[in-house]
Design a protein that fits this description.
Elements: H1 2-18, H2 22-88
């Protein structure tokens, strides 16, 4: 009878030790959350890079438009000066 009780006790302890402790479960949950946060960070970094490329492209486009505008302004001023010179003659 004592041997049977000891066997049941040993089997019970073995079954309990086979389950993860609460600390192990918490650690696993934290590691899962860390992995999810890392994925979100990587996604945001990719989005940020794409947005930065868009900003750079728009800045280049704006610079080109400013150059074009300045060239047009100069052409208009030269045309006006020529017209003024012709009118004075």
């Amino acid at each position: 009878m004592k041997k049977l009780m000891m066997l049941i006790l040993v089997l019970g302890l073995a079954a309990c030790s086979g389950e993860a402790t609460q600390a192990e479960k918490d650690l696993e949950n934290i590691n899962t959350e860390i992995t999810e946060l890392e994925d979100q960070i990587n996604t945001l970094q990719g989005d940020n890079e794409a947005l930065q490329q868009n900003v750079d492209a728009k800045e280049s486009e704006l610079e080109e438009l400013e150059k074009e505008f300045e060239e047009n302004q100069q052409s208009e001023e030269e045309t006006e000066e020529q017209e003024d010179a012709e009118n004075e003659e």
